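Sanity check

After download, print the first record. It should look like this:
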Amino acid sequence: MDRVVKALLIVIGVMVILSPIGILLVWNSQGAWGEWDVSTVEHMVGHKLPGMEKLSTLWNHAVLPDYDVPGWEDKLHASIGYIISAVVGTVLVVTLYYLLVKFVVGKGTS
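Expected structure tokens:
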């Protein structure tokens, strides 16, 4: 395996393992920064955002909603759910990237 690929995989692995820090840091607060719903953003900016309201209903099919496995409510299980969510998200992104590269490279070599 190429050294760059190996280093990249190590960095991704460390980030996946560290992903529960996100839930532990915001466990007793209102939520993670930037993960606001439409009403919260509207309250922050002081007016209605019809475009954001329209787009907020565009996609409601998360593989693991709220980075969680249903029924895992305590901190330990929530952290494990975060890791599972990170692994699933990483696999999906890498797979899509791989398919895109194969598609683009395949088109270029014809």
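If your output differs, re-run the checksum step. Summary of this record's structure: The chain has one domain: 3-108.
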